[in-house]
Every structure is written in C-alpha cells, then in structure tokens.
Amino acid sequence: MRKTLKEIAELVDGEVVGNGDIIITGVSGIREADEGDITFLANPKYFPLIEKTRASAIITSRDIEAPTKSVIRTDNPSLAFAKIVSFFVALYEVKHPQGIHPTAILGKNVALGRDVAVGPYAVIEDEVSIGDKSIIYAGSFIGQYTKIGTDALVYPNVSIRERVTIGNRVIIHSGTVIGSDGFGFVVIEGLHHKIPQVGTVEIGDDVEIGANVTIDRARFDKTVIGKGTKIDNLVQIAHNVAIGENSIIVAQVGISGSTTIGKNVTLAGQVGVVGHISIGDNAIVMAQSGVSKSIPPNTMAWGYPAKPQDVAKRVNACVQNLPRLYNTVAELKKKIEELEAKLKDK
Amino acid sequence: MRKTLKEIAELVDGEVVGNGDIIITGVSGIREADEGDITFLANPKYFPLIEKTRASAIITSRDIEAPTKSVIRTDNPSLAFAKIVSFFVALYEVKHPQGIHPTAILGKNVALGRDVAVGPYAVIEDEVSIGDKSIIYAGSFIGQYTKIGTDALVYPNVSIRERVTIGNRVIIHSGTVIGSDGFGFVVIEGLHHKIPQVGTVEIGDDVEIGANVTIDRARFDKTVIGKGTKIDNLVQIAHNVAIGENSIIVAQVGISGSTTIGKNVTLAGQVGVVGHISIGDNAIVMAQSGVSKSIPPNTMAWGYPAKPQDVAKRVNACVQNLPRLYNTVAELKKKIEELEAKLKDK
Amino acid sequence: MRKTLKEIAELVDGEVVGNGDIIITGVSGIREADEGDITFLANPKYFPLIEKTRASAIITSRDIEAPTKSVIRTDNPSLAFAKIVSFFVALYEVKHPQGIHPTAILGKNVALGRDVAVGPYAVIEDEVSIGDKSIIYAGSFIGQYTKIGTDALVYPNVSIRERVTIGNRVIIHSGTVIGSDGFGFVVIEGLHHKIPQVGTVEIGDDVEIGANVTIDRARFDKTVIGKGTKIDNLVQIAHNVAIGENSIIVAQVGISGSTTIGKNVTLAGQVGVVGHISIGDNAIVMAQSGVSKSIPPNTMAWGYPAKPQDVAKRVNACVQNLPRLYNTVAELKKKIEELEAKLKDK
Questions:
Q1: Helix B322-345 to helix A322-345 angle, to the nearest 10 degrees?
Q2: CATH class as words, domain B3-92
Q3: C195 CA to chain B: closest CA distance, Å?
Q4: Which fold has domain A105-310?
Q5: Which residues of chain B have pLDDT under 70?
Q6: How far apart are CA C330 and CA C325, in angstroms?
Q7: Which of A18, C124, C262, C312 is most exposed, with minimal Cβ within 10 Å?
Q8: What ipTM was predicted for this assembly?
C-alpha cells in the first residue's frame, strides 16, 4: 500500500505543489501524523500546524501559497481527504467470514438480511433481526429480540443481551458486553435486593465500540449511545446513561448511572463521571479527571474534582509551587519576629 | 407492567393514603427513584426525603400522618417493599435457556442438579458440580472440579477456571473471568519467574458479579467474596483478597493482593486499594480515591492518598483556595516591607 | 504439596541451618512471603529483611552466619530458588486439554507443531501457525495469519485477531483481546472518520498477559510487548505502544498510543500514561499516577501529574499540611496588623 503523491492527487482531482514522487503509506490527522502519512488542513486557523506536522504531505484548499511541505491543492480538502481515507481502508480490507457457518445456531424467527455472515459457534437467539451485509464473528452471542442494522461488524466473543437495538455500520470489538444488568440494589434490613433492570440499550448508526467495553441496560427506558460516537477499550457505561452524537470516549472511562453526555464531547482516558449529572455539548474533560458536578457546554475541564481548565491549571500551579510558598511564609514569620523585636527595643 | 397503587396495596395488605389510581411502573430506592416508581421509607430519620424523592408513591409505616405524597401504609414497609420488588422481577423474567443443549460439552463425572440449563457451546469440564435450577449460558467455560450452587445464573462467555466454589443464587454477567492466576512473580537474576498460583476462589451465596470483572485465584488458600456482596463491571480483585458480606464494589475498582475488605463496605467507582491492608466494616471510600493505608471501620474516606472525609474535605478546600492564599501572602510581604521601611525611617 | 526443609535442601544440594523438619508449603518473594513459604536472599543489601519476612525459611549464600531463621545455604541462592519454584509449579500442574478436540475448527493451511492442544469450540482461522506443545483452550479465537510460538498457553475465550505474532512460552488469560483496532479517527466536517488500523501486534517470549486485557494493533507497523514482560488484568495498551523487556504492568493501567516504555519498568495499578511520550528503563511509576510527560530512566515517579517521587512527596506533604499553613498565615496577618497599629501609635 504505497502510492505516490501524484497518484493520490489524481484520485481527488487535485494539484500537486512540491514533490509529486513522495511515497505515501498512510493517512492521519495533522497532529497524530507520522512520516509517510498524508493529512489535510481545512481550517485556516490551523495553518501554523503545517510547520509542525510530521506528515509527508497535506491536502489543502486552492488558496494556500508557497507551502513549506508538499501539498495537494483541492476545492474541498475535507471531502478530498475523506475520499482518500476510504480508498486506503478499501486497500486493507481483511477477509471477514462469509455466509452462515453450519455451526452457527439460529433461533426461531431470526430475520437475516442479504449477505449476512455468521461465524462458527455464534449463537443468535429467537426473534433477532440482522440487517444486510452485517457480519457476526465466531463465538458471539446475540440475545432474543435484539435488532442489528446493516453493515454492522461484531468481532469474536462479543455478548449482546436481549432486546438491544444497534444501528447501521456499527463496529463492536471482541469481548464487549452490551445490555448487562444495570447495577441497582435497594437495602432492605441490611441486605441488598436487586432492582429489576428491564430497560434496554440503543446504539446509533456509525458508532464504534472498543474491546472489553461494558454497556449496561437501563433500569427502565434505555441507555443511549448517539450516532457517530466512538468508544475506546475497557469503558464502563452504566444504566440509563445517554451519550449524544459524535462524542469520543477514551479508554477506561467510567460513566455512572443516569448521567447525560452531550454531542461532540471528549472524555479522555480514565475519566470518571458520577451519576445523575450532565456534561454539555463540545465539552472536553482531560485524562483521569473525576467529574462530580455538571459541566456546561464548550468547557474544558480538568482535575479531581474536575474544574474549568483555567481554574484547575491555576490551582495546580499553586500546588506545585507549595514548597516555595512554605519557605516564603517561614521568611515572613522571621521578619515579623525581627520587626517585633525591633519595636520592643524602641 | 403497569399497576395502580391500589393494586399494589392489595399485594402487601396495606392502606392507600392519597390517590390509589396512580400508575406504578417500577420500584427503586428513595434517592434513585424516578416518576412512576414506588419506593419505601422504613427509617424515620429519612422522613424529610419524602419531600425530595421523585418517586410517585412511597410505602411507609402505619404511623405516618398527612403525607404530601401518595403512600401505602403497612406494618413493615421493608418487608412489603421486598415483596413488591420480587413481584416486579417476576413480571419481567426473560426466557433463559432450558435443559442441556445438545452442543454443550459435559466432561466426566459432571454432577448436574434438577432442572439445570446449559446453553449451546458451553463447556463443562470433568468433575464439575452444578446445583438445582442453575443456568449456564452459551459459550461459558467451567473448569475442572468447580462447584456451582443452586439457582445460579451465568451469562454468555463467562470463564470460570478450575476448583472454584460458587454459592447459591449467584449471578455472573458476561465476559467475567474467575480463577485466573494471581499476578505473582519473583525476580531471579533480572528475570521475573512465575510463582505458582495454586489457591482458589470462593464466592458466597447471593453475590452478583458484573460484566468483564476479573477475580484472580489465590496463590495458596483462597480469594473470598462474602455472601450478599455486589460487584459492578470491570472490577479487578487480585489474589488472596477477602471481601466480607453485603459490600458494594462499584465499577472499575481495583483491589490489590491480600487486602481484606470488611462487611457492608462501599468502594465507589474507580477506587484503587493497595495490597496487604484492611478496610473496616461499614467503611465508605469515595470515587477515584487511592487507598494506601488501612481504613478503620465506620469511616468515610476520600482522596489520593485517601483520608477520613472531613480531613480530605478540609485539605481540598485549602487547595481550591490556594490562588487566594498566594495573594494574601504577597500582600503580607508587601506590608512587611512597608513596615521595615518605616522602621528604618525612624 | 508439603515438603520438609530438609527435603528441599536435598533438591538443591544445600545445607540446612536451623530446623530441617519445618514444613514448607509454598514459595514466594521475601516481601510477599507468608508463613509456610520458602524464599531466597541473594543480595547482601537485603540481609535486614531476614528479620522482617513472614517466610518460614530462606535460601541464602554460603557465607551467612548465625541466621535468626531456618535457612538453606547454597552456592547460588538465586538458581537454587529458581529450581525450587519449578519444582513446586510442576507439582501443581493442572490437566490442560490434550490433542485437537473434534469440535475445534481449523481453517486452511493451519500449521500445528508437535503435541499442540486445541480445546472444544476454539476457532483457528486460515494460515495460522502454532508451535510445539502450545495449548489453546475452549472458545478462543485465533485470526488469520497469526503465529503463536511453542509452549504457549491461551486460556478460554481469548480473542486474537489476524496477523498477530506471539512468542514462546507466552501465557494469555481468559477474556483478553489482542489485535483489536487502534482508536484512531480524523474529524472531517464534524464527523469522526475511522483511520485504517492495519499494523499488528508482536508479543515476545515469556510474556504473561492477565485476564480481560486489551492490546490494540498498530495503525501501521506494530504494537510491541518485549520479552519477559508481565501484564496484569484489565490493562489497556493502545496502538503503536512499545514496551521493553521484563517490565511489570499492574492491573487497570492504561497506556495511550505511540508511547514507549523501557526495560524493567514498573507501572503500578491504575496508572495512566498519555500518548507519544517515553518512560525510561528501570523507572517505577506509583499507583494511580497520571503520566503526562516523559520520565527519565531510573526514576521513581508519583502523582497527578506524575513527578519524581521526592518532589511529589514534598508537594504532597505541603498539601496535607495546608490547614496549618492557613492558620500560620492568619496569625502572621494579625501580627502585622498589630505591628502596623503600634507603629501608628508611635
């Protein structure tokens, strides 16, 4: 999978400025790119990143001048890049299972669309429906009445319980559990009695869910993952959580029951969020933060407990400087004693 | 699953005060309840919560007067509520597997009680025993000599290794691993040599274990989960940990080797506990805390490192106020310089 | 598995000093040992631990005199102890699966070495190779073109995706996922587009990987776990991470993309590490730390954000003392006001 910059320019009807013979081996975002990658820049605000990126080439708009890197000029850099991403993805496609393996178990009234694949030892319970071209790998379990859309990809050893709804083009990685009971008990005379968890889970189109994730079903009603949201490995999503569209939930995040997360939110790695609060659209919570109160939209938050980033940074700077502050206070104390002594002398 | 308050009152031989035609759709604790729920109040200490709960109705004792919410008066609100919970659970029961699926693999000398169900592609190794009415779902693995009690429920794709003991009415959610090797190595000339992990795991009656939990077997002896304890998703319990009865271990908690947790303890989400310490009965450790020293019984602890809550809160308030303290110290410094200057003048 | 100290001494050609009739039931490191254990001491620096260890007996060099515990003197305590560990491991060996179970599914061109075992319902895809004496338990999945070395042990319900390379004597516990897609997206006009993750994972000899771990495949190139490294349960290792040899990664650690971890590094429980940094050889990062910047070799680091341990401890001591500092500052303020008043009086 090696293409020259010139070949890529042809794919998107763009114009090479710089060296068209550069070999491109991959695609990436402008910050994450490595040598060999092509990336793109649509927003003039980020022009300074052209100097910093490790990418070998950049797709830009027609109006960029005298770039310091090899670029492809196009009318619409975003669309051109999306096209190239699809092209690279297609090149790499692995051989997924095809057809219904004879050892796959299909219950009663299972509705399979066109070209559905079910791998060996997968178990599909009664009344399940699976849309066209979806693929269920070996050893996965799909519980009764669950609905899966079209073009979904469920990797090996996934467990999806009963009455869950999963959209189109959803990708679910191995070991993930969807629709397990919410963690709800009530103490009666010192013992924890289970509260029935009879809601469900609804996962929108174009969601991707990493490996060994857990998404609990709602007590009543439903736990919701909005369309286009991407969830990394080992994330815990409790009962009745609702996540909006196009959010990013990084590895090992935990979200407690009945919390609402907006659209385009980013929760960085190992963040914990308490129950019954809300995090507004476009908010970003930095890694390992502990969120104990609602966060307004468009806020960057950090810390334990999480605060707006500027407040948290100021507080943290103060904390790191504490040894000096203690010295300062000790000096002031000494000076005051000297002053007191002097005043007594007078 | 909709009942009028009147119908529910009849179930528990109680008296409606207020509107008996209210529709009840679920049960919950008084703090977690939503509209449509019925809850209960047994302890007069919590009477003020009657005003605050979102529940539509409350089961109370006979002596409550002039309630502001619709209530059912009963002789014993706790027992009445427990009865209603069971009633609602029964209403919702899903269709679990029945009988031994022809593809289930049973080793030699497997002892199955009455009405045991084993789902497709489950693997039960030699010498396992499973008690009456227990259910093992598809794709789960039960290792040699493991014993499971009666009325247990093991969801799909659970892995239970050899020689583990599991009590009655235990629920284990998908993806959970019980009896994996403890993490024990000894460094000999720069290399980590595995220390044999030949103990086991013992899980008491009425324990519930969430999805993708890991509970390691002991090095010798046993890792113990006391009866009635409830464990949420993605929790790590290391070798030789002992947890008492009726404790609550919330999602993503990690407990290191040989630590002892008492009865009725709550470890909130993402708490980490070091090895070889103990946490006393009824202790509560708040979310994301890092516990590095033993915690006495009846203590509420918080922070990193975890401290009694009042100490931790005071310290945290101080931390959040630091920018002001820096200002104060700067002002004091200035005043001292002024005083010094004045004194020189004299 | 009970041996007298005398019997053990004979195994390693050593000399008992003290009570040769003591019953030894296990082996352990000197700090972790319990009663009944035998341990060893090779480095004279640690002689004081002889007084503190809970072990019942210790293997030492020939030159130790007048020990307060029963010891076995040998020419090379490390090697003698390694021999005893192997001896104890052999005693406990459980009955692993043998041969290829008739329900195991083997794809085309699968190359199996001598005495390979594949359990029931395991799925081995096309072009896989598995070395001599390796064991694949029930329900595990091995993707196309993956190579597994000799004497490897893969427990039930493990998912290993395509084109992964796994060394000799590697142990992988249940529920673990290796080779899942890295978490990589690029935002194009507000939507997250998947970046193809077409690299692989390479796991060195003698690595042990706990239960429900996730190790993502690289975007290009490979995610690497160096030989002899041991990984505990529920650890997240992102795409393109490289870990050196003989490192220890404790439970629930998360390592973000493209980070490099050196040799002999220890990351304690629940540590989080950001992407694109490096942690030097022999570094130790203490539990729950959040590592946001590279850490030099031979450093002990702690905190959030992680700092060298001495700095972090000093800062933490300052933090814990804050309530006192506030009091001190309040007193100084009062004294200054008194001084100001006095000066005015004069």
A1: 30
A2: alpha beta
A3: 27
A4: UDP N-Acetylglucosamine Acyltransferase; domain 1 (2.160.10)
A5: 1, 66, 92-93, 346
A6: 9
A7: A18
A8: 0.91
